[in-house]
Design brief:
The chain has about 280 residues and is α/β, with parallel strands linked by helices. The protein is built from twelve helices and seven strands. It is globular, with a radius of gyration of 18 Å.
Length: about 280
Amino acid sequence: MLVMIVGLYEASKIFWAPDFDLKKIKLNYEILGSGSQKVLLLHGMAGTLDYWNRGDLERDKTHSYFTVDLLGFGKSPKPKSSYNYYEHISAIEKIVIKEKLNDGSTLVLGHSMGALLALALVSKNPKWYKGLTLISIPLFSNRDEIIEFHRNGSLFDKLSVGEYGIYFCMLHPIYFTEIFRPKELPRDVFQNASKHTWFSFDRSFKNIILNSGNDEFANKLKDKKILFIHGDRDTSAPYSKALKFSQSFDNSSLLTIKDGDHQIYLTNHEQIWKAFSNYFDVS
């Protein structure tokens, strides 16, 4: 009975949600730090802007970090939407234009799904940005491939990406308990991951994670400076594919985090920011 009630309630939220209207969409975002070097941060699947809380970014005097709740996640709008590249990127670009992040000096950094969106964002208007950093980028060709890769992953991952993942997602108010929490996710990050709808999760998964268009993006960014950062024990995004993809660019570098999993930013943020500053020569 509880499962049925929760399922009906989650379905009703989508029924009453407004349709996607770019003119009305205003993503939630925060600015941390007070420096001149602007950095746009895009979180991963089911994340929120709070993902970047590690690292004391608010105290930084050299960078200003623009942390965004992506469309359908966190405190941002959750409309009836395709949640495809056009809608995600168009919503992000409203912030880019408003905050004048399109002056050619902004650095873009994304984690997981946010890395795919960062790649698409910069490839659309390469001259707007100085470079990008892609952390734990997930590169998959289809659902069968992602299911096979997650065969030995956490229970949460296996249920999320499986054939019936949409139903699992509809019941997320029930299963956000300790038994389902992946060991690499701190409790606060895991709880924040509930701030989406089954619709925004399922559509983003299908239209971004499983429809990445990587080759198309790579062709537009051959000369752009790109830093890849990936854990060699990532059980959510294949390290081997990130390594191969990084070699598609003429001006890229790959930092391998030894024994690192998918959430390397949470455990290695100091190492990541140091590599980021050194690579783009900002401090």
